[in-house]
Amino acid sequence: MEAQKVDMFMMMNAKYFESHHLNAVREKLLSLDESKWGLVQTLQFKEPTTSLIVSLLGGQLGIDRFMIGDTGMGVAKLLTCGGLGIWAIVDWFLIMGATREKNMESFQNTFY
Fold first, then answer.
1. In a designed cystine with 88, which of 13, 59, 66, 104 is the match (CB 3.0 to 4.6 A)?
2. Is Glycoprotein there in the keyword field (predicted)?
3. Burial of 18 (0-12, 13-18, 19+ CB in 10 A)
């Protein structure tokens, strides 16, 4: 794929990935066929900041984990009321990274 298109994608979507994943995303996009550009443009990622806000407001119910697709942990948080509140507070610090990891997982499942 053209480097200019890849750079444009990276500028627009870098916030959705961990910084150590950016090089791997760029390399994968550069290796793709030009016909995949339409698929690349249709990719939608979860917003880490939105996940944090949802975690602050509904973290004890596991809504944040359900939202990023981590159903098992969402059910566990729901049944334990956010680990008696402790797990919910810990997730305030971890949910943005978990969202970015899920975005990378989604990207990898699409192209690998």
1. 59
2. yes
3. middle
User: Any idea where the domains of the chain sit in the sequence?
Assistant: 3-111
> Residue written as tokens 């810990």?
90
Q: Cβ(96)–Cβ(48) under 8 Å?
A: yes
**What's the average pLDDT block by block, 10 residues per block, for the chain (112 residues)?**
91 95 94 90 94 94 94 94 92 96 94 78
Q: What does the chain come to in residues?
A: 112
